[in-house]
Amino acid sequence: MSLLDLPDELLVFIASALDFEDILRLQQVCTRLRGVVKSDSALQYALELRVAGMMDNPASRLVPGERLRILRAKEEAWRLLDLSDRRSIALNHNPSGIYDLTGGTLLLGERRHSENLTGTDAVHTINLHSAFSHAEEQDTRALWSNIDLGKQVIDVGLAIQEHDLIALVTYSYVHEAQMIASVDIHLLKHSTGQPHPAAAKPVLHFENIYYLPGHCSIMLEISGDTLCFLLNNYFPFVNADPVTLVVYNWKTGEPKVSQKRLYSDPTMFNSFVLLSPDTVVLPIIPTNALEVCQFADELTASHPPDSASPNTEASTSSRPQIPFLKTTCILQLPPLHPGALVLRMTCRCEPNPRGPLSSATHADRAVPFYSDPEKAIMILHLHIRLAIGITRVYTMIVHRSSLLRITQDALKHRQNEAVVNPATEEPEPEPSDEYRSVDQHSDAEDTDEGFPHVPGAFFHPFYNPHRHARRSARLDDASRSEDDDTDSEAYPITIPWETWGPAVTRWFADELAGTRWITTTCGQRFVRVRSDGRLRVYDFNQLSLRRYLHTRSMNGEPFGAHPGESILERGELDADEGDEDEDGEDEDGGVDNPEEDGEGDEEGSDVLQIQQERRIRVVLGTTMVADLSAWEMPPQSSLPYIETSFASPDEYESVLLDEDIIVGLKMDGNGRHIQEVVLHRIGGPMT
Question: What positions does the domain F-box occupy (predicted)?
């Protein structure tokens, strides 16, 4: 009996155990198998999930056919950028500067005394989809829920879909005259506001520190059982170690690893992104680089040095020795102009990675699918002070999976070289074919047959980490004794920007107002409002882009044939979008911006109509940020994307992004407080 003698039901059962590439190949075998794959909604849903960069929610009550219908409707609506499904949310409190947006939940802090410029007394959350279940004329104030611990809140963290968890960081003075405050992390069940039942220690005491409101920033992210906590405390002339990063197991309340950075340390940072539950990337400000650090359970190292913070003796005697954070790889960013200085780096990658299903403490049945965290894009904002006395902002986009893959491959390559050539005196081996043939390499899991090739979409960078590791080792040998047997693997691999960056990133010149809010990405999409009033959505999903171009070509409508469509092909250079500084100078360095060619001083209704219509732009070629006052050489980047823009229906200072909702923010006249929140749901309800 052959495979084709089996009934369709058994063929579907067999195909359901195959991965994405194998299902694609299966339907190319013959007409019968193609029909089996095309006719089964579960198989089609599995294929569409992969192309859309989504993950199935096994807790959803919907059948595969309904999930498939919703997914296709969402993806088509994103392509059209349909903003007609709109709701305005009224606020029932005076918002503070604290906010978060993830998993369909928007959080805003409350400042009860509006004359104060700092401080958060409580937090309010709202389920965004609940606003669409109410009639448009109904008051939405009752949809907000309130959590008030009676303490000042200085940061929050959310893991709603995975754990129904909200973490609130508070401070309370224990010696107010000396300005010594206790910093604590409260682990609460979001739906009830009560201590989370999965937390053995519902309140994690961080430290007693010198604290002055407005001189401290905190960042907190949750992934699986991991809670990553970063404190930047710039209390003047008191704290010798202003930067502290601690990684907790929030269920047990025990710290996994920690790291302190001194004022004199050239590796200061003020934000981070979790690449996985045991890997974090740190944007290092003084060195203009990304540190990739790991904190696996098997990591063992010496405990951190004693802190200069108050109550040190009590904290060090009661706290177990915690291993250091281990830096495994350093990814250099584009070299700066000698007169330029990085003032600040902020980053985010939404959604956070999830732990294994067994570690989840909550089942969210409201959504059938959600963005795959591994395929999500990381956004990095660099605030650079130029020699001419102005500050400009530049934005880099890169996939989380690219950073993980580059780091892992560099480590594997160094390990292989250590096995093959353990003696450092021997000449360096020639790079393998995989590392030499960079233009021909593609990620094996993404070489799907039937799709056209997108240049740079799945680039695997050439890099010989052994060479750079030994170069760093040679520099350190001068200060090391001859009998020092330090293992070379203890030193992080340094990868130059030209080696890893151009093919897997995309750079933009940005506007300061738009970068005030960091929650502008979700999954593989990035949204922003420009000064021209157009709302732009950038989609960096490589599979979706390839299929879209292929489908248009097969239908006899190649992209660019319709009005409002443009394409930047391989090998072209495009000056990025420029901003206006306070002196009215164009921030793109004087290079013409093709995107603005049709938006100048032309008159007539035709130009006005074009501005109001939707525009779609596919960028496949290399672009550069042409600003020689910021960069030693203009950064070039080639990560393909599709940009859809539309005249914004409202005047927003900025827009935020969740899974399927664009959140528009309207501010007061001073630009300090949110006056109104407007929701645009893309593709209809999730049910």
Answer: 1-46
| Tokens encoding 572 | 């072209």
197-244 per-position pLDDT tens digit: 999 999 999 999 888 888 888 999 999 999 999 998 876 555 556 788
399-to-459, 643, 647 alpha-carbon distances in Å: 12, 17, 28
- SS3 for 282-308 is EEECCCCEEEEEECCCCCCCCCCCCCC
Q: Which two tokens stand for residue 333?
A: 């960013």
Does this model's pTM top 0.85? My answer is no
Say how far apart CA 174 and CA 93 lie, in whole Å: 29
Residue 650 pairs in a beta bridge with none
> Do residues 352 and 223 lie in contact, with contact meaning Cβ atoms separated by under 8 Å?
yes
Kindly give, in sequence order, each residue whose CB lies less than 8 Å from that of residue 567, ignoring residues fewer than 6 positions away.
559, 560, 617, 618, 619, 620
105-121 exposure pattern, b = at least 16 Cβ within 10 A, e = fewer: bbbbbbbeeeeeeebbb
- Model confidence pLDDT, tens digit, residues 149-168: 999 999 999 999 999 999 99
Instruction: Report the alpha-carbon angle 159-165-170, nearest 5.
Output: 105
DSSP state of 472: H
